[in-house]
Write a structure and sequence with these properties.
Blueprint lengths: L10 H10 L8 H10 L3 H13 L1 H7 L2 H8 L1 H23 L18
Helix pairs in contact: 2-3, 5-6
């Protein structure tokens, strides 16, 4: 009746929205994730976890495996490390395509004999 908003957000909600829009980078991602977990800011926690998963290679170069495990939990950190190792292996194999190898193989003729 008085043109007042039906729902007035709480201070906690407003703070969560402000903090949730923070910039996440390689240097601060574990701190942001820990903060989000500690203060129950689900949206920020989801963003930070997604950042870690999507940038696993770089995150693991900047932060130790033990620090990542401390924040994410050992099981999740191990899962991310295994997945990244698989990706690194696939990339390494793809880079070999078209690369001259040291070992020389005899050419195969049309009859299948060298």
């Amino acid at each position: 009746s008085l043109n007042m908003p039906r729902h007035i957000p709480t201070l906690h909600h407003l703070c969560c929205e402000l903090i949730g829009s923070c910039v996440i980078n390689l240097d601060n991602v574990l701190d942001v994730l820990h903060f989000a977990q500690s203060h129950n800011i689900a949206a920020l926690q989801d963003r930070a976890e997604r950042f870690v998963r999507d940038s696993a290679s770089a995150v693991l170069k900047v932060h130790s495996q033990s620090d990542v495990a401390l924040v994410l939990g050992r099981e999740t950190a191990d899962e991310i490390t295994r997945a990244q190792a698989e990706i690194d292996d696939k990339v390494r194999k793809n880079k070999l395509v078209g690369t001259v190898l040291d070992e020389v193989h005899p050419a195969i003729t049309a009859q299948g004999q060298p």
